[in-house]
Design brief:
TIM Barrel, binds coproporphyrinogen III, two-stranded antiparallel sheet, alpha/beta, seven-stranded parallel sheet
Length: 346
């Protein structure tokens, strides 16, 4: 038996235990709201070089942990390393976001194979090993990947923004889309399994673009590939808990929670916390929901918001987090206050 003080409170909550106060980590906790991150980012030629440098990636992970008593570290990487490793051109435009050579408009889609992609991603697994060696035992290490449809939308459109083009392509080129999703399921499963082998205690699937889908497409593009991803991970021997975060799933959220095989459900900002509790299976751990803008606003409204989330989720296993990533204009002082309020809430 592991020494109880070495078992992270996050893993206990993921195991279905009600922990008071709940564990806390913050989506995008390493990032531009930290001045030391901006300094570090300036040392890499490009954002992808940053992600593929085990030394820089490890340092980025440690930065927020030095400032705040968070219960988890999350790998520093990006969901778009998968298309990059599969041979699609990916780059990041300063102040705008990611760009890829869009598949839409190309007559034939050609990709590299999974095996080679996983080889190319070896610096990510090396970073994971280094991080594990440098954080306390009771801090959980989270691995991650994008959901198959979220990554596919970037590959199709070449950028964020509205997803009409990607959705229309799901109707117009169904067999190619299904083949792309299958390739992403297999590559993502191998990528996540390698992260777990390198030291991740649990993983999160960021399905950031679960929004705006009619039921038939939600079933085909989100439910089916996610269920396939989870069962492929289990077949690969991965027993680590899986947090699914279907941002914008709305009315489809209950089916996502019940039918994909995930361990815990990430709740976005717009979903009423009580609705999420009602929709998810009775003892499923819930995570998230605090409006990231409250961490920019600070003060009284932040405190009220935090207390509301704590109140609604307190009847089941709960992991405190935001409903989406922290924004660059949030202040480290407000993050300190947030963690203090949560930790003092027992
Ligand atoms: O601290 C952490 O959470 C770990 C690192 C992490 C990053 N991206 C680093 C990053 C994680 C978990 C992600 C996930 C990710 N990446 C998602 C899913 C989560 C979400 O926000 O919905 C998505 C959609 C992406 C794709 C992506 N990468 C976008 C849209 C952008 C641009 C927007 C932005 O914030 O700049 C990125 C770039 C990116 N990924 C940055 C960081 C720290 C900023 C780039 C920089 O520092 O120059």
């Amino acid at each position: 038996m592991a020494d109880p003080k070495d078992v992270s409170v996050l893993l206990r909550a993921l195991n279905g235990e009600r922990v008071d106060p709940p564990p806390i980590w913050i989506m995008r906790q390493a990032g531009r709201y930290l001045p030391e991150y901006r300094e570090l980012r300036g040392r890499a030629k490009s954002f992808l070089d940053f992600c593929y440098s085990p030394a820089l990636a490890t340092e980025a992970v440690l930065q927020p942990l030095r400032r705040f008593p968070l219960d988890a570290a999350i790998l520093f990487s990006d969901i778009l390393v998968i298309p990059d490793a599969l041979g699609q051109k990916v780059w990041f435009v300063e102040g705008e976001g990611p760009r890829l050579e869009p598949l839409i408009g190309q007559e034939r889609w050609v990709f590299g194979d999974t095996e080679k992609a996983i080889q190319r991603l070896s610096p990510v697994y090396e970073a994971m090993q280094r991080i594990r060696g440098q954080i306390a035992k009771d801090v959980a290490l989270i691995g991650f990947a994008g959901g198959p449809w979220t990554v596919a939308t970037y590959m199709l459109q070449g950028r964020g923004g509205d997803k009409d083009d990607a959705r229309r392509t799901a109707y117009l080129r169904p067999s190619e889309i299904d083949a792309l999703l299958s390739l992403l399921v297999e590559t993502t499963a191998r990528h996540v399994a390698a992260q777990v082998k390198a030291g991740a205690d649990c993983v999160q699937i960021f399905e950031s673009w679960a929004e705006g889908l009619p039921l038939a497409l939600f079933e085909r593009l989100i439910l089916k590939p996610t269920a396939a991803l989870v069962s492929r991970l289990r077949a690969l021997g991965v027993t680590a808990p899986i947090i699914g975060f279907p941002r914008g799933a709305g009315a489809h959220m209950g089916r996502y929670a019940r039918e994909t095989g995930i361990t815990a459900l990430g709740v976005d900002t717009q979903t009423p916390a009580a609705f999420a509790r009602e929709q998810a299976p009775a003892n499923m751990p819930l995570q998230g929901n605090l409006d990231p803008q409250l961490v920019v606003a600070g003060g009284e409204v932040l405190e009220q918001g935090v207390r509301h989330v704590l109140d609604v989720f307190r009847n089941g296993p709960h992991i405190f987090n935001l409903g989406h990533g922290i924004t660059p204009d949030a202040t480290p002082e407000n993050v300190s206050a947030l963690v203090r309020i949560v930790k003092g809430a027992a």
